[in-house]
Structure formats: structure tokens, C-alpha cells
């Protein structure tokens, strides 16, 4: 009977190379992988020290550096942070896309399924199930029109069903009105909703997005009291003789922001806009958001306006902000203004309305929907300052159930703050 061989009392990497159990701690491939990983994660930090700054390519903020308090989440969060903050990322994306178009006549697939082949129809029982990789980040339509892919994917792959979305919005109205405040809700329609005629004949998710959009607009305004501006926007565009959404940007033009301002003011003080005068003012170039995702630096021509609520001098104020830090816009009182202190939850569509809201509202503060859910205590305190609470939300995020503030628990926490400071 052979004697059992005992394992050596040292790590296998420390054994002599001729030992049958010797295993190197790091083979050549492992060492190469470690060096590449080190370069990947350290490059953003090193280049930052020398002044390089990353810019967002997508319609979202750059991924933040993970906190050490997140446990294993710190390590899983390093990848997205490093990818977002790599220097010269925009130039690399642009080069890859240009090469793909030049050689193959099609845009590059920059995000896995960013430009996946079209799938006829959408997510139905008779067709294959779609996942995130099947949807394009950019949908290229005719006449040079570009659409944000999230217009489609969020509706086909919602995080909350429509009943939950409606329940969340109704809960917001309940807690705000229970505190004695007025509540106004505006849904900014997607560009693909207002101008579907420029979409390609076939694209991934076209059926499921269309069906979800139709159900959304059939149910949500009636169930929540949300303002439906679709017909008004098309009518205004026809009168002006130009589209009310930018062909290569996902947002409406300043005319869309002005239309929302007029609509809100009339709902709060009927007839108040009777003294308003509106005249074209400056023109300027604005960086378009959709081409950024293709690594392209393209601009749209912006026509701004001068709004005088009393019919006199221009009262607009252009203050750049993404509203993640609340933006306060206080204006001297003039005839024709809404005087009630107003607090607003608004996203990027409100950026194209804020100059005119500042002209028309005497006491206004705006905060981003993401900030609302992240800091309910501070948001509750901000909203409690007002007598009116306005909420502007984008269709794609609401229809896809993507806003965290749609959780009724968020409304309840803020509602508790409002209830503690009621309006008589």
C-alpha cells in the first residue's frame, strides 16, 4: 500500500520550477491582462491630472466614481466609470463610425446592438422576444432625421407597467393637493410621437413601441390629468412653417418650451397671457445630443425669443442648468406674471422653456426628476416653499416606467414634508 503524498506546506508558486506541483503565480496571459486592466482603470485618473476631461456621449450623466462603502459594488462600478471617463472617447467613436460607413456603408455598432439589423415588427407573442441589445441607440430616419433609440426601447422594455405608472402619478397629485397646493403635470411627447413620418420603414421594436405609445396616450392624460400637448405642438409647427422638434436633437425647439409656458400660465391664471408679447431675439448654435452618440460634433440652429408679460421690455433670463442642483429664477413683479410661488420638477425639455418660465413666473425653482428620488428630504423642503407644484416629464421615461419618482413611496415621503407645511 503506497503512502499518501502530502501537499507541500508552501504556496505552489513558491516551489522550485522543476517541482511537479509548481504553478506560476501569474502566467504571461494573466500578467498581460493585469497590465491592461491597470492601464484601463488608471488612464482616466492620470489624464484628469493633466487637464483632460471626459464629455458625455449619451443622454445621461457620466457614471460616477463608485463609493468604497458599496462593498463589491465598488468593483463592479469601476468598469462603467472608467469607460465613461476615458479621454478622447468622442474622437474614437467618431473614427469607428466613419470607418464603418466608408467601408461597409452602414453605421458602426458602437453599443453592442446599437445599430442591430432591423426587426420587422415589435415584441409580440408571435415574434421573438427582444432584449436591450436588439435596440439601436440611434435610429436614422429619412431626410437626415435622427431619433433617440430610447424612444422605442423604453416602451418595449418597461421597468413598470402602465398601471404602476398611473398609480405613481396619481399619488403625486394626491399628496400635493392634500397639502393645499395646486398640481400641474405635463408630459413632453417624444419626437418619434410627434413626427413618426420620418422614422424608417422598419426598425427594432416598431410594433411594441407603437402599441405602448397608443395605450399610453389613451390612458395616462385621462387617468392623471396630465397635459397632452401633441396636437398643440403640431398645430403650432404648421402655423410657423417649421418643425417644432430638431431633426438631429431629441428635444423640442424654443417654440415648444414657449408653448408649455403659455399652457401652464393659462391653467394657473386663465387669461394672464392676454398682455404677453413675443418677438424673435437672438440666434445661436447649440450642440445636438443625438449625433454625440455617433461620435459626431454637430449643432442645431436655435431661434430664441423675447417674452414680455406686460407687453413692454424683454423679461427672459437664460441661465444654463441641468437642474440636478435646483435652479432658482426670481424676477421682479410685472403685470401679466404668475405671482404664486411655483416649484417645478423638470428634465431636459424644461431647459428649452426655462428662459420663458423665468419671464412669466415671479418666484420659480426647478429641480431634476433624478434629484427628487435621490434626496426626498431636500426636495420636499424645496417644494414646500411653493403654492404650486409643476411636474414636466418626458414621455419615454414615463411610458417606460424609468423615473424612480414613479414609486408611490417617493411621493409619500415628499408628501409627508408638504403635509407638515400646508398651504392655507
Automatic annotation (TrEMBL):
InterPro entries: ALGX/ALGJ_SGNH-like (IPR031811). Residues 110-129 are annotated as: Disordered. The keyword Membrane applies. The chain crosses the membrane at residues 31-51. It comes from the Bacteria. Residues 138-271 form the AlgX/AlgJ SGNH hydrolase-like domain. It is found in: Periplasm. Keywords: Alginate biosynthesis, Membrane, Periplasm, Signal, Transferase, Transmembrane, Transmembrane helix. This is AlgX/AlgJ SGNH hydrolase-like domain-containing protein.
Amino acid at each position: 500500500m503506497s503512502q499518501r503524498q502530502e501537499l507541500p506546506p508552501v504556496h505552489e508558486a513558491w516551489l522550485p520550477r522543476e517541482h511537479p506541483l509548481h504553478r506560476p503565480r501569474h502566467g504571461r496571459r494573466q500578467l498581460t491582462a493585469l497590465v491592461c486592466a491597470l492601464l484601463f482603470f488608471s488612464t482616466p485618473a492620470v489624464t484628469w491630472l493633466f487637464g483632460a476631461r471626459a464629455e458625455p456621449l449619451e443622454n445621461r450623466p457620466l457614471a460616477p466614481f463608485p463609493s468604497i462603502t458599496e462593498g463589491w459594488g465598488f468593483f463592479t462600478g469601476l468598469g462603467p466609470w472608467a469607460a465613461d471617463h476615458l479621454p478622447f472617447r468622442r474622437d474614437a467613436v467618431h473614427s469607428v463610425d466613419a470607418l464603418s460607413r466608408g467601408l461597409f456603408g452602414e453605421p458602426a455598432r458602437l453599443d453592442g446592438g446599437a445599430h442591430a439589423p432591423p426587426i420587422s415588427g415589435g415584441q409580440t407573442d408571435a415574434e421573438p422576444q427582444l432584449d436591450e441589445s436588439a435596440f439601436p441607440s440611434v435610429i436614422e430616419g429619412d431626410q437626415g432625421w435622427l431619433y433617440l433609440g430610447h424612444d422605442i426601447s423604453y416602451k418595449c422594455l418597461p421597468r413598470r407597467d402602465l398601471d404602476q405608472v398611473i398609480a405613481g402619478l396619481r399619488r403625486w397629485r394626491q399628496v400635493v393637493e392634500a397639502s393645499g397646493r395646486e398640481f400641474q403635470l405635463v408630459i413632453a411627447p417624444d419626437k418619434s410621437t410627434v413626427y413618426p413620418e420620418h422614422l424608417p420603414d422598419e426598425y427594432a421594436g416598431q410594433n411594441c413601441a407603437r402599441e405602448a405609445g397608443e395605450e399610453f396616450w389613451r390612458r395616462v392624460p385621462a387617468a392623471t390629468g396630465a397635459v397632452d400637448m401633441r396636437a398643440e405642438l403640431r398645430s403650432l409647427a404648421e402655423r410657423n412653417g417649421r418643425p417644432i422638434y430638431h431633426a438631429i436633437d431629441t428635444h423640442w425647439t424654443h417654440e415648444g418650451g414657449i408653448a408649455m409656458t403659455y399652457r401652464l400660465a393659462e391653467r394657473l391664471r386663465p387669461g394672464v397671457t392676454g398682455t404677453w408679447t413675443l418677438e424673435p431675439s437672438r440666434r445661436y448654435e447649440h450642440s445636438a445630443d443625438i449625433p454625440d452618440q455617433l461620435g459626431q460634433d454637430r449643432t442645431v440652429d436655435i431661434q430664441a425669443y423675447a417674452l414680455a408679460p406686460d407687453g413692454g421690455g424683454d423679461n427672459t433670463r437664460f441661465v444654463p442648468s441641468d437642474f440636478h442642483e435646483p435652479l432658482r429664477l426670481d424676477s421682479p413683479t410685472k403685470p401679466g406674471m404668475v405671482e404664486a410661488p411655483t416649484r417645478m420638477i423638470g428634465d431636459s425639455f424644461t431647459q428649452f422653456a426655462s428662459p420663458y418660465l423665468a419671464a412669466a413666473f415671479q418666484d420659480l425653482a426647478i429641480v431634476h426628476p433624478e434629484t427628487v428620488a435621490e434626496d426626498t428630504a431636500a426636495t420636499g423642503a424645496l417644494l414646500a416653499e411653493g403654492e404650486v407644484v409643476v411636474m414636466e416629464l418626458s414621455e419615454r421615461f414615463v411610458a417606460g416606467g424609468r423615473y424612480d419618482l414613479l414609486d408611490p413611496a417617493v411621493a409619500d415621503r415628499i408628501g409627508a414634508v408638504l403635509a407638515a407645511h400646508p398651504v392655507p
